[in-house]
């Protein structure tokens, strides 16, 4: 596999995972009652939008096309579809637990890609900043979880 393709494929995977997580947060916004939690999830959606823009730009810089997020719809149903069941109980606790699980999975994907790929400094810096943001989201979600418990 060509260097450029390897990086583009990895960036596309991150793009799709962020899209997937963003859709989960949009579902959560519609189904939680706590206004502070809704506001937090709205900020998470905004972060994912920013990541989307950055990742798409970086993929194009490598001379390839960003993968269509529509092709990821089926996978979306696989993970966050579980939230439909959770939402029927209006359990903010379960929603937060699912969100934390999803973001930890994202963090692992970022770690694997960064560790296993020789990246240009600008790409590495962007991904490190996104990872830091994801860590902050996890910390905040865990704080909300402690309040609910």
From TrEMBL:
NCBIfam families registered for this protein in UniProt: PA2169 family four-helix-bundle protein (TIGR02284)
InterPro entries cross-referenced by the UniProt entry: CHP02284, DUF2383, Ferritin-like, Ferritin-like_SF
The protein, known as: PA2169 family four-helix-bundle protein
Domain (DUF2383): residue spans on this chain: 7-115
Organism the protein comes from: Seonamhaeicola algicola
Pfam entry (one): DUF2383
């Amino acid at each position: 596999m060509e260097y450029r393709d390897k990086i583009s494929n990895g960036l596309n995977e991150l793009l799709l995972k962020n899209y997937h997580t963003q859709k989960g947060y949009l579902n959560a916004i519609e189904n939680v009652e706590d206004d502070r939690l809704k506001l937090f999830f709205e900020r998470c959606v905004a972060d994912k939008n920013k990541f989307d823009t950055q990742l798409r730009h970086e993929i194009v810089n490598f001379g390839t096309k960003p993968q269509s997020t529509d092709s990821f719809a089926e996978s979306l149903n696989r993970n966050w579809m579980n939230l439909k069941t959770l939402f029927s109980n209006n359990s903010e606790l379960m929603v937060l637990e699912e969100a934390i699980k999803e973001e930890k999975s994202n963090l692992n994907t970022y770690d694997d890609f960064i560790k296993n790929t020789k990246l240009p400094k600008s790409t590495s810096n962007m991904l490190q900043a996104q990872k830091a943001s994801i860590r902050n989201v996890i910390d905040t979600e865990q704080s909300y979880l402690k309040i609910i418990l």
